[in-house]
TrEMBL record:
Gene3D superfamilies: NagB/RpiA/CoA transferase-like. Transmembrane segments: none annotated. PANTHER family: LACTATE UTILIZATION PROTEIN C (PTHR43682). InterPro entries: FTHF_cligase-like_sf, LUD_dom, NagB/RpiA_transferase-like. It comes from the Bacteria. This is FeS-binding protein. It comes from Anaerovibrio lipolyticus. It holds the Pfam family LUD_dom. Residues 26-197 form the LUD domain.
């Protein structure tokens, strides 16, 4: 999957700006923006939480990205398929099934404590449709990759951004265009579920 930056921690993260101490603010503000936030110890716990979440929505089709870059996610997607769920991870399969998929599973590069936003590298088409089209968007992020505010986020993005698409995602899609009544899910996912993994090491 093509990205703005293939290795954000190594190439973009500025020492002193990215710190787990901003997690508390991120969790509070993301929750206030109507996201469901779960912090888990590792990808094994993340997989268990994901399966728990999926039971609620009983998806017939899932589109998922990030497995090529993250072996732990690739393993999770494979096991979901073995359980009988249709999980599409290839670029052209995602494009074909994006309009009908119930759930999209994607990744974020880091979070912003000040706003509870996720910073997503959505350079590729498949990453964009996975995070924008399905009713439910589940996002995996490293719980330690947090910055204090939007200024810090822009400093990090500025180190590597040349072209492409990066976005800030704050809660599920919402609008109040019609008679100033707040509606969720009009221009994107109705549900945003964040699974933040503390320890990424040793996952398979």
């Amino acid at each position: 999957m093509e990205k703005v930056c293939e290795n954000w921690p190594e190439k973009a993260f500025i020492s002193g700006l990215v710190d787990a101490k901003y997690w508390t603010d991120f969790e509070a503000n993301a929750t206030a923006a109507a996201a469901q936030v779960y912090k888990v110890a590792d990808y094994a716990a993340g997989e268990a939480k994901l399966k728990e979440v999926l039971k609620e929505y009983a998806p017939k089709e899932i589109i998922a990205v990030g497995g090529d870059e993250n072996p732990a996610l690739k393993g999770i997607y494979s096991r979901l398929s073995e359980d009988g769920t249709k999980v599409y991870t290839e670029k052209f399969d995602i494009a074909e099934h994006a309009p009908s998929a119930d759930v999209g599973i994607s990744t974020a590069e880091f979070g912003i404590g000040e706003s509870g936003s996720l910073v997503v590298d959505n350079y590729s088409y498949e990453a964009r449709v996975t995070s924008m089209l399905p009713f439910v968007n589940v996002v995996f992020v490293n719980a330690n990759y947090m910055v204090e505010n939007i200024t810090s986020a822009c400093q990090i993005i500025g180190k590597v951004f040349q072209k492409g698409y990066c976005g800030f995602v704050t809660g599920p899609s919402r609008t109040a265009d019609i008679e100033r009544v707040l509606s969720l899910g009009v221009h994107g996912p109705n549900k945003l579920i964040i699974i933040a993994v503390e320890n990424e090491g040793g996952a398979k």
